[in-house]
Amino acid sequence: MSVLSDMERVLSQLGLYQLKENSLVSCEIKAYAAGFQLVEDRLEQLLEDAFVQTASETALQRREQLYPDHCWKNPTLEVRRSLLLKMIAITQNDNTVEGLMKSYEALGVKTQLSMTSDDKLNIEVTEHHSGITQPVQLNQLLTQMSPAHLMTVTHFMPAST
Fold first, then answer.
1. For residues 114-150, b (16+ Cβ closer than 10 Å) or e, as one string?
2. How far apart are the two ends of the chain, measured CA to CA in Å?
3. What pLDDT score was predicted for residue 73?
4. pTM for this predicted structure
């Protein structure tokens, strides 16, 4: 239903107004309805932008700016939504192997993790879709995302791009 039809329905039930076509009351209600329609449209857009799944591209860009380390390479809108949801889902309690893998995946990097015999975190990069082309930079980013008390060793598998 449009705002105008909602207003006409509610006001006609009151019995106070005669809503004849082109009467002063009818014209005033149409003017109010036009203003309220703008407000309703804006509120609807705000509600859509409040959620990553329905946000506009501009709203997604604003959210991505909250994560300066994101470096996704030419992702589609759906991939951006998926990676952003993964990034938002990372919490301080993600200190397990699964949590670390989830953190790396949010950057667009798929990994296999293991511990070496000398207690270092072994990160095997199986594939990555980040915009980082230099392995040294990707290694630095993965090290920053890793627990501070662990030394890391990063290996890049031949299939990674």
1. eeeeeeebebebeebbbebeeeeebbebbbebbeeee
2. 51
3. 65
4. 0.62
